[in-house]
Amino acid sequence: MKARVYVMLKNGVLDPQGEAVRHALGTLGFDGVEGVRQGKVIELDLADGTSEATVEQMCEKLLANTVIESYRIEVQ
Amino acid sequence: MRAAVVVFPGSNCDRDMAVALRAAGADVQMVWHKDAAMPDNIDLIAVPGGFSFGDYLRCGAIAAQSPICKAVVDHAQRGGYVLGVCNGFQVLTETGLLPGALMRNANLKFICKDVDLLVNSSNSAFTSGYGVGDTVCYPVAHHDGNYSIDDEGLARIKDEDRIAFTYTNNPNGSVADIAGVLSENRRVLGMMPHPERAVDAGHGGTDGQALFRGLFDQMVSA
User: Fold this and answer.
1) What is the pLDDT of residues B119-136, one digit of tens each?
2) Which of B118, B123, B173, B199 has the most CB atoms less than 10 A away?
3) Which of B59, B142, B196, B203 is catalytic?
């Protein structure tokens, strides 16, 4: 089985990289890009039967820093 | 004073840290990240700067899970002294020993220069050698030194006088110009600037000496 973890900076935490991407898109002529947030996607190959709760523990302990980041898990 | 300097793959300020501690009179041992225990009777653990584990995932995140970091956390929880500089500060926030997190610099640039800092609290072994309001000059060299903490956490560390150093001219976007933070018991200090790179006239300045001497005095009198 596979799980996909999306890690994003929490709302309200300034994302300087996203802001730089937004600015670059404007420079390329893409008008109307009002905000860009950059995060990461982590794909996990897991033994069958691994519970979503276990993946949640992985997020809490390592994959996300919950001081500044939020995460979302998709089990496939 | 007996000190241990933790070495991770990618640490690059470990020897500078050892030199600075020895110059202040400490007996220093280097400790490898795979070790599960500290040498006996260690007073201070220094977590040095560098790019531990290539900064993979997040700066300090992998190092914070290494076997030796459990010993660092145990030492701190027993009331031991811990100094984390630069990547060491990132590691300490990742272990939860210090509040907040270090994010990418607001201007996205790697910053390598000398910066002036204000001593915001002299109420710690690390900063007892300075006076509140003193200006000291240490080098910074980091890409992820933008200190972030929520409003509640910020109010708390302010109330508890736990902001050890602030930048006089904020280089990286840190909240409230914060350059260094103390733990609740004031025995764990994390800071982005490098005091160990300002302890010899050959470094261009010696403002860091008082930090290491202050620690040494505290250990000797304790």
Assistant:
1) 999 999 999 999 999 999
2) B199
3) B196
Q: Give the pLDDT confidence of B78-115 residue by residue, as tens digits.
A: 999 999 999 999 999 999 999 999 999 999 999 999 99
**What does the pLDDT look like over A21-43, one tens digit per residue?**
999 999 999 999 999 999 999 99
Distance to chain B for A47, nearest Cα, Å: 22
- At residue A57, does pLDDT exceed 90? yes
* Residue-level pLDDT at A74: 97
Total structural domains in chain A?
1
Please indicate if any CB of chain B lies within 8 Å of the CB of A62: yes
Relative to beta strand B81-85, strand B44-47 is parallel
ipTM of the complex: 0.87
- Contact residues on chain A for B104, CB-CB shorter than 8 A: 16-17
CA closest to A16 among chain B residues: B106
Domain of A8? 2-75
At B220, the pLDDT band (50, 70, 90 cuts) reads confident
Residues of A in contact with B105 (CB under 8 A): 16
Residues in A touching B148 (Cβ below 8 Å): 13, 67-68
Per-position DSSP letters for A10-75, written without gaps between them:
PTTS--HHHHHHHHHHHHTT-TT-------EEEEEE--TT--HHHHHHHIIIII--TTTEEEEEEE
Contact between B81 and B148 under an 8 Å Cβ cutoff? The reply is no
CATH number at residue A6: 3.30.1280.10
Q: Please state the pTM of the whole predicted model.
A: 0.95
